[in-house]
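Service request form, structural biology core

Requester: graduate student, group of Dr. S.
Request type: structure prediction, single chain
Budget code: on file
Notes: please return the result as structure tokens.

Sequence provided:
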Amino acid sequence: GPVKIEKPEELPDVFKRVIDYLPAAIVPLRGENHLLGIIIVDNKFNKDPITEIDIRTLELYAALASNVIERTILFQKLQKKQDELEKAYRELQEYHKRVLKLEKFAAVGEIASTFTHELRTPITIMGGYAELLYRSKDLPPVLLPKVETILRTAKRMETIIKNLSDYIKSPEPEIKKLKAKEFLDYLSSLLDIETKRKNIELKLYVEDDIEFHGDPSLLEHAFLNILRNSIEALKDGGVVQVECRLDNGNVLFMFKDNGPGIPPEMLKNLYIPFHTTKRQGLGLGLAITKKIILLHNGRIEIESQQGKGTTVKVYLPQRGGDKNG
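Core staff response, request fulfilled:
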């Protein structure tokens, strides 16, 4: 706590060069786990004594100053991480351009694996600092938009890296028996915030007793890719309809939207990795989705009419291990 010094003999040697008038008070500036500095005060000019009220006031001031200093140090660290992120993002954009020119995608796996491994740690650290600042009650309002931008960018980078990793990997599906209605209800709940934000109605039509075999984690990823594409394409008040029924030994999942549709020239490129017309992302969503469906011995078909909407059909074997017809 604060120390009040009234006599010369009470003055520690370390302070004799900086304190030339008594009485004086020394107040520490404490961080969470360490000393940030000290405040030294005296009343040399007005010769007034240092009262107990002065000490309490100094303690309050020191607490506020310590908080500001610690937040400033934290923000400087975050700024450094942001600079590293911006550099990494520029490198990612350059990498994206190079990958687009590759004719053989066999080389992509090795390059992307190294790239995602090197980027994941700094981006996670940067995102953690941003999250810490964003949740801080002491963050100055003027800095809030900057921290929000850093946080959004970090999350976007994490999504890009995850999509690259998912495309590179070819995991062996862990096949389980699944109930179609329960599975689709669960996916609908995951999208609840997104659909409400855009006032989009997600309608499910599925019989209670339909069962199928698949890896719930992989299929969740694949189906969410399809549904999010529909949600992104729709304006406020749009409708996404999901139907599930049996079809010649398969379970057919149909995802329909009443969005603007897909131009014919784009349909043929939908599954090509890194081919995208979106401003963000790497164009891996449907490539990953198709890969997951094929791992389940299934197939995917996309039909679209401009001005009327898009329908995605996914056929999965009703029984695990069966080839789909």
